[in-house]
Amino acid sequence: LPLGSVIETRKGRVSLNSERVSTDVERFLQVTEDALLTGDEDGMREAIGLYSGPLLAQTGDDWAYSFRLDYEERYAQIVTHFCRLRAAAGALKESVRIARAAVVIAPNREDIHVTLISAYRKMGLEAEAIRQFEDLERMLDENWGELPSEAAKNALEGKTELAATEQDGGLPELAGGAMPVSSQFYVRRATDGKAEKCLDRGESVVLIQGPRQVGKSSLLARVLAHGRAKGFRIAVNDFQTIGESQLAEEELFYKTLAHSLASQLGLALNLEKEWQTWLGPNMNLDAVLGNLLAKVDGRVCWGIDEADALFGRSYSNNFFGLLRSWHNRRALDPDGPWGRLTLILSYATEAHLFITDLNQSPFNVGVKLPLRDFSPSEVSELAGLYGVTQAEEIAAVFRITNGHPFLARRALGFLSEGGSVGELESSSTQEAGPFGDHLHRILESVSFDPKILEEVRNLLGDRPLQHPKSRYRLMAAGVLAVSAEPEFRVPAYEVYLRAALG
Q1: Which of 91, 167, 216, 331 has the most Cβ atoms closer than 10 angstroms to its Cβ?
Q2: What 3-state class would DSSP assign to 16?
Q3: Which ranges of 335-404 does DSSP label H, i.e. alpha helix?
Q4: Cα 304 to Cα 223: distance, rounded to the nearest angstrom
Q5: Which residues contact 490 (CB under 8 A, 6 or more apart)?
Q6: b vs e for 445-457, b when ≥16 Cβ sit within 10 Å of the residue's Cβ?
Q7: CA–CA separation, 304 and 217 (whole Å)
Q8: Using CA atoms, how far apart are residues 173 and 155, in angstroms rounded to an integer?
Q9: What is the pLDDT of residues 168-224, one digit of tens each?
């Protein structure tokens, strides 16, 4: 291989050339994203095989910690979902084998222990299920001084999530991550219909904005599925899954996008020939995408998830300015290829906090579709899908979760498995409860930045926020409600953080 074709050095940085080198981490991120959305069991098998333990386990640097948690969470979701699917298909030995290996790889994940306990019970291996429950008890006590959750106890008693539900003959789904398009537990909101109409009209830019875990990725997946059904050629990129080495360098990031777009549209692209370095990244990507669009018949939709992963990057103004220029190009050349392109961007953070010139960005020209937490009627509809029909239980779920989609699903799953409203209420602020892993992530997210941590302490102490941007950042992270005055998005956050932060 020629010098510089594998390792690139630019502006004091060293990185791998993504056109020559692929990594198991990059593949794992892509496969898990696709498999959870489509339910592809072969993809799940591949993802499970790719994960071998904590990322860079020998590295003690703080920067690696959040990535480890994210990858481990993805692995746990894939394992749990895959084992449920295999159990439903009668492949119980495979379910046990996968879950047993996962407990070794991620021994401190209660959800994986629960999956193995459930698999053992489904096979009628009661002694192994009891032994695994005892291992879980020891692990929780030694690490956190806690007891197994209700989900673990239900699994031991045979109230297993691996079994089909009486109501629909299907499997309860994981409450976390983007929901598969085929999900029976998805609740359509008014925003869904608006987004689909925007695509039908051929809008140039559609903006899906909302806090973390409000359902942006799930909505994006459904709009793209709607586009496929209408004959659109579809491309999608999740900026959160693009590696830091590719995000760090402007030209490398643009080349990554160009390669991805060509691949997803089924078109050949020779970057070594078509990429002229002297033109700069913006003009190169503009030319590449223009050429690709000219080769495609019909309309094209490019979905960009987690667009705010670029906010704050040195080149973010350039990139979003380029997207804006494509919008302008439709007016200047209405019969050209740009008139057939629709961009759909999902993001959490307010763009004006990071983009210097909003007149050169797509965030003030597109159709903005704010996505918010569930209303009482939407929680009631979701409850029906879980078989929870008692009015007092539904009211309690809304009161406890404030309509938070992820937590509402967790709460309804807890009730549908035999838990009581009293148990849900008393455990909703505890790490051993159904919201435990979520609450721990909230604590980590506010503790990562000392300034944000201090602002949370101000809120807990009934003191005003000191920095104007803090409220927007906390809303984007899903800690504060999207409201006129700063208030916690879910009551449990305030109780949990007050106890955790002393």
Answers
A1: 216
A2: strand
A3: 376-385, 391-401
A4: 12
A5: 400, 401, 402, 404, 407
A6: bbeeeeebbebbe
A7: 10
A8: 16
A9: 333 344 445 677 777 788 899 999 999 999 999 999 999 998 888 888 989 999 999
Pairwise CA distance, residues 367 & 453, whole Å: 34
Say whether 236 sits in a helix, a strand or coil: strand
CA distance 176 to 51: 19
pTM of the model: 0.68
Q: At 346, is the pLDDT very low, low, confident or very high (cuts 50, 70, 90)? A: very high
> Among positive and negative, which fits the CA dihedral 179, 184, 186, 188?
positive
What digits encode the pLDDT tens for the residues 208-226?
988 888 889 899 999 999 9
Distance CA 21, CA 406 (A): 37
Which residues of 210-360 form beta strands (DSSP E)? 233-238, 300-305, 341-347
411 contacts 402 by C-beta, under 8 angstroms? no
- The gap from C-alpha 191 to its chain's centroid, in whole angstroms, comes to 19
In the structure encoding, which two tokens stand for residue 19, read together?
A: 């056109």
What is residue 162's predicted lDDT score, i.e. its pLDDT? 39
Mean pLDDT check: name the lowest of 91-100, 229-238, 339-348, 361-370: 361-370
Structure tokens at 136: 């879980």
d(CA 143, CA 272): 52
Cα–Cα dist 66/85, whole Å = 29
Q: Please tell me the distance from the alpha carbon of residue 451 to that of residue 456, in angstroms, as a whole number.
A: 9
Determine which of 62-71, 277-286, 428-437 has the lowest per-residue pLDDT on average.
Answer: 62-71
* Cβ contact 343:367 at 8 Å: no
- In the chain, the amino acid numbered 282 is N
How many contiguous H segments (helices) and E segments (strands) does the chain have? 22, 7
What is the b/e burial string over 180-215, where b = at least 16 CB atoms within 10 angstroms of the residue's CB?
bbebebbbebebbeebbebbeeebbbbbbbbbbbbb
The single-letter DSSP state of residue 147 is: P
